[in-house]
Description:
The complex is a heterodimer.
Chain A: H1 3-21, E1 24-27, H2 29-42, E2 52-56, H3 83-90, E3 94-99, H4 135-143, E4 148-154, H5 160-166, E5 169-172, E6 192-197, H6 200-210, E7 233-237, H7 246-259, E8 262-266, H8 274-289, H9 308-319, H10 322-333, H11 341-364, E9 367-371, H12 380-384, H13 388-393, H14 399-404, E10 408-416, E11 419-426, H15 432-446
Parallel strand pairs in A: 2-3, 2-4, 7-8, 7-9
Antiparallel strand pairs in A: 1-3, 4-6, 5-6, 5-10, 9-11, 10-11
Chain B: H1 4-13, H2 20-37, E1 77-78, E2 81-82
Antiparallel strand pairs in B: 1-2
Amino acid sequence: MDIIETTEKAIEETERIHKKLNCFITICVKEAKARAKELKMSKKKGRLFGKFISVKDAICTRGIRTTAGSAILANYVPPFNATVIDKIEAEGGIVIGKTTMDDFGFGTFCTNVGKGLPVPKNPHDIGRATGGSSGGAGAATFEFSKDHLALAESTGGSITAPAAFCGVVGVTPTYGKVSRYGLIDYANSLDKIGTMGKNVSEAEMLSRVIFGKDKQDETSWTQEEKPAKKIKKIGVIKEMLNGVDEKIKKAFWNAINKLGAEYEEISFPLIDYSVASYYIIATAEASSNLARYYGMRYGAQEDISGSFSEHFASIRSKYFSDEEKRRIILGTFVRTAGYKDKYYLKALRIREKIKQEFALLFKRFDSLVTPAMPIIAPKFDEITKLKPIEVYALDSCTIPPNLAGLPHLSIPMSKVNNMPVGLQIICNSWEENMLFEFGRQVESVLK
Amino acid sequence: MDHRESLKKAAAIARIKLSAQEEERLVSEIDEALKVFSKIDAFKDYVEEPKFTGARKLRSDSIKKCDIDPFSNSKLIKNRKFIGPKLVD
């Protein structure tokens, strides 16, 4: 089959998967067909030729609606591509659709989607959530039969959570390894574009295409990676097992024992501050980033009525969801005079200390291993009963490596109550070679 | 410590207008979250202020023709200017 025929088949499969699981906000039928024609005529093949890429809807795609999962951007059409999209297209990849997500990345289950946008369903049990915020990416990656890779994004665990809940591999690279140019911001010091695939090699294939410094993102960097070496000693952080479901803990220790590497349980008390530190920093940055959505240059707009503040407040109040409002207010509060030192500056110091402590741990261990999530994918009605603070606490496994900007991946390790559970592998900054090599070893042992 | 009044002020600063019901619900939820986050008060280690870790050299400005239409996502435009509400009443 030539690329035009395989693209037609991929579009049909995308539509079938969306009908079943609500994974997509936009299916790029016209654009994918046009791209296939271009590729056939150019005869150029790259590393992603024949691959169909779903893109989390926080990543800008020229001429294709990009909502960031939010009602306030429901009709936004970017006039430019994110750098990662240009890289994918240069290597022959075809963007097949934009996947569902929690609004601006604000969520653990992919249920905080903007009004009118779809909530994705878990492919293992459609009465359960996919995990968030890259929920559509996780569900689509599991359900596609072949030749699909997903581009996703993580701030506090938005790749690991859906990868674990949907039973696929999710890779979050070192902060700065991938350009954020064209990524709709949640928190600039925490956001990382990453990938998902059915296995480590597939996720790595897409990762290697998008890595690299970009002049348009001054926080991106290229650093020579050390060659991968055999994993001799792994660390298990005791505090990251607190609050984990007992069946998941049992599956975790079974997996550790199968790996055959020497391991040591270590205490890292500072981890107990990581959730608080993360939410203070992330919401502080988000409240600043979301100030740009006020109904003038892009996003939801209405006829002008009232004064400067009244008009903008009415647009923002109408189109932002409860979770968006919650995080904006919290993030504004922690930056205000009288509270900035107690919350925001203290949280920054905690993050710096956590990074330093991780650096010391990596002098003793080749990798750190934890459960990816403390629970299995919850049912939708269970989620409605949770208070916001209870939801935030469920990010306890994913937040620490995200806060420290460390590369990590989630691999399916087992099933609990017929739902997949993931193993999270964390390596030192810029050691993606080690991460992928260890990931492949773990994958072969746990199959 | 109850932060409700300060949270209502923060909402106004952020240009979020809350209904009475929203105010009651959201402010309570955020206040509850802040009580939990206040555990960071117990962190006493001294750490230097975080150093800037971005590029040490800013790229030079280069002016080139823009191929992006800055007005493509707005309907509130006139004579290639954005239209907004009055700044001062």
